[in-house]
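Why do we bother with holo predictions? Because pocket geometry can differ from the apo form. Keep that in mind while you read this record for zinc ion.
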Amino acid sequence: MHELSVLFEIVKQVELVAKKNEVEHIETLILQIGELSSMIPHYMKKLYPAAIEGTILADSRLEIEVIPANGLCKDCRQVFNLIKEKGTCPTCQSKSFELLSGKEFMIKEILCS
Ligand SMILES: [Zn+2]
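The structure, written out:
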């Protein structure tokens, strides 16, 4: 599954950062995932325990912040949620928009105990 290989990659990155900072135990990992990213938060949470087994992240918690998919209407400058409005501006019905957010996928914070 796509999510699992991505998680392994994240674990690798976190281990590098932890080593550099001489951290031995991590309590919580916070990821930011955009609504339009290909990652599904529900799957990530489910696969997390398997991905962290035997790593510095063992026994840590995964928190996911979902970033809304927002678009800026090119015709009336209204900002709207692309998923909720299905890509059509609710004010002027234009389908022409600029993507403001929603494709993010990043490590936001690593909390150590
Ligand atoms: Zn509009």
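Strands lie at 26-34, 61-67, 70-73, 79-81, 97-101, 105-112.
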